[in-house]
Amino acid sequence: MANLKLQAITKRFGATQALKGIELDIRDGEFLTLVGPSGCGKSTLLRIIAGLEEQSGGDVLIADKRVSKVRPSERDLAMVFQSYALYPHLSVFDNIAVPLRMRWLSTWQRLPLAHWLVPGTRAQERNITGRVAEASEILGLQELLNRKPAQLSGGQRQRVAVGRAIVRHPKVFLFDEPLSNLDAKLRVHMRTEITQLHRRLRSTFIYVTHDQTEAMTMSDRIAVMMEGELVQVGTPSEVYQNPRDVRVAEFIGSPKINLFPGSVTSNGNVYLLGKETALCLEAPLAGETIQIGIRPEHLCLADPERAIFSGVVQLIENLGAEVFLHLHLDGGDQSVIVRLPHDLAAGIAVKHRVHLDFPRERALVFDLQGRRVDTEVAEVGPVREAAPCG
Amino acid sequence: MRHHSSPLVEAFKHAVLIVGALIVILPFYTMLSYSLKSPHEIETNTGGFFGAQKPMVDEYCVKLGNSREQCTTIPVVYNYTQAFKKAPLLRYLFNGAFVTASIFLIQLIVAVPAAYALSKLRWWGRETVFAMVLFCLLIPVHAIALPLYIMLAKVGLTNTYAALIIPWTISVFGIFLMRQFFKTVPDDLIDAARLDGMSELSIVWRVMLPTAVPALMAFAIFSVVAHWNDYFWPRVVITGNRELFTPPLGLREFRGGADGSAWGPMMATATIIVIPLIAAFLLAQKKFIEGITLSGMK
Prior knowledge:
By secondary structure, chain A is an alpha+beta fold. Chain A has helices at residues 42-50, 92-104, 107-110, 121-139, 154-166, 184-201, 212-218, 236-241, 246-251, 342-345, 382-386, and strands spanning 4-13, 16-26, 31-35, 57-62, 65-66, 77-80, 172-176, 204-209, 221-226, 229-234, 258-264, 269-272, 275-281, 289-294, 300-301, 309-318, 322-329, 335-341, 353-357, 364-366, 372-373, 375-377. Helix content of chain A is 27%, strand content 32%. The relative contact order of chain A is 0.11. The model of chain A is unreliable at 381-388 (pLDDT under 50). In chain B, helix 1 runs antiparallel to helix 15 (263-294), helix 9 (172-183) runs antiparallel to helix 12 (213-229) and helix 10 packs across helix 11 (200-211).
C-alpha cells in the first residue's frame, strides 16, 4: 500500500498536448476514479502511472519515491485492462501464477523440465500455489482453475484478470475501464465486487472510466478530466452537487443537467430566460451572459402563476420508480428534462402543458468561460416560499 | 447467411474445380501408378493403375550371378526395394529431415523476434526496415544463387550441411507473415506481460510465440515444403558427397544410365519422398488453413 503523487505531468503526442500539467495526490488506500469523456487523456495518465508510457514532463511518486526511471514491473503496481489481456494459451491457474513466477523464480527455475533440478523450485511452487488459491478463493474462481480463457465468460475473464492483479499484493491497483466489455447486468454486479475487493484489501485503487455511474458509485474521490486537464477532484457528492465547471456539471449526472442561458444585471441579479430569479451573484459580473444549470431532479411542478417556465411534454420515459419528462419550453427552442417521482408524474401525458419551478439554492451558475460562480438567494419572498419544491 | 445460386452456376463451379483437381492429381496418379508397375508395362503403357503384378526377373540381379528363381519378384516389391537398395534413401530422408528442421528452427529464432520488433516496438527507422523486408520478398532466389555460392565456396562451406542451411536461415517471408499476425495481438496483452515482470525476450517466447501457433503452422508448411522439395540449391552446393544428398537429389540416382531410366524405382522413391509431407499436411490441415486465413493470405 502506498500513496501516489503526480507532479505537473505533461504528455505530448507530436503536436497535440494530451496532458497539460496534471497535479494529483492520491492517498494511501484510497479508491480514486479518473473519469472523463473519451480522448480526455485519462487512460494515458494511467499508462504513465504504470510506466507503460513515458511522460513528456513532470514526476510520478509512489510511496514518496520518484519512479520515472523505474520499469513498470518494478513499480509494484498491478493493472487490469479493458480487454482483460489474459494469456490465451495458459490455464486460469497459470495466468494468475505468471506475475509470481516471473518474480519469485529464477530463469532456470522457469525452464520447462530443467526447473525441477534447481533447488528450491518445489518450495516456491508450493508458495505460488498457495497464493493463487488465496486469490481464486476471494474471486470465486476455484472451479475454473484448469480452464483456458477461451472457455470462460466475459465476467469470469474479468475476474481472472483481477486475480492476476491481486495475487502479488501490489501497492497500487490500476483499472483501465475494466467493465466496459461486460453487459449491463454483469457490470452492476462487478461494480459491487470491485468495491468490496477494495474494502477487503485496503490498497490504493486508481480506476479509469468514462462511465459516470461507475465513478459515482465506487469511488472515495472522483477526478474529472477534460481535454488533458484535471477540472475537479472531490468526493462523488461534491462533484455532483458542487461542480466547479460547466463541463463537470454536464458530464456527471444522468440524465444530463439542464443548461439555460441567463444574464446578470449590474447589481448582480440573475435573470434566467429573461425572467428575474431572486438569485444574486456574490461577486459582480455585470452585463455578462451566463449559464444556469438545474439538474432534472431539482425541477418540479408548480402552479401556472408561480412557475418560472412552462412547456409542452414531448416524450415520457418511465423508469418505474421515477419518470423523465422531456419538455419543449414555450417561446424559443430550449429543451428541458425533468425527473419526477412516479406518483407526481401520474396523469401527465405527451402534449400536456406543464409548469415548472426550482428551489433557488439548487441553481448552479457558470460564467462565460464555464467556471462556476457562487450565488446567494437574494430575497425569499412569499411566492418562492410557497413553491412546492423541496 | 446462405447464398443460393442457380444449379447451373453451381454445376459450372464444380466442373471447374473438378478439372482443376484432376490437373493437380494427375502427376501424383502417374507417379503412384508407375511405382507399382513393371518396366515393360510402363514402356507399353499397359496394365492399368496397379499393373498385372506378374512375376518378373531382375536382369541386373542375374548378371551378378544369382539364379533366375532367386531374382524373380513382383514389380511393386522390385520397385520399392530398388528404391532403398540402389541409393541410400534412408540417409537422404534423414538429410532432408535434418536440413528442413534446422532451417525452420533457425528461421523461427530469427523471424519471431524480428516480427515482434517490427509490429509491437516503436523505434526510429522501423518503417524503413519493414520496407526493406518487403523489398527482399521480391528478390528471386535464383538471382542471388551465384553470389551466395561463391561466398560459401570462399569460406569453404560447400558440401556441408551448413551450405544447405545457412542461406535460408533468414526468411523475409516468415518475418512478414509473423509480423502481420503479431499486429492482430492486442497491445494490452504485451503491456500486461510487462507489468507481470516479463522482459521483452520473455514476451516474444512466452506470450507472442504461443499465441501465434496458427501462423506458425502456416509458415512451417511453407518452409518445410519448400526446403524438403528443393532441388535447385542442394544441386548447387552439394557437388560430390552423396552422403549429404537430400531426397530430391536422390531421385537423380535413377536417371537414365546405360540401361535407360529406371522409372519404376524412381517413382517409388518419389512416392516415399512425398509421403511425409502429405501426412504432415493432413495432420495439420485445420491449423494450416486457420493460419492462412488469419494472416489474410489466400
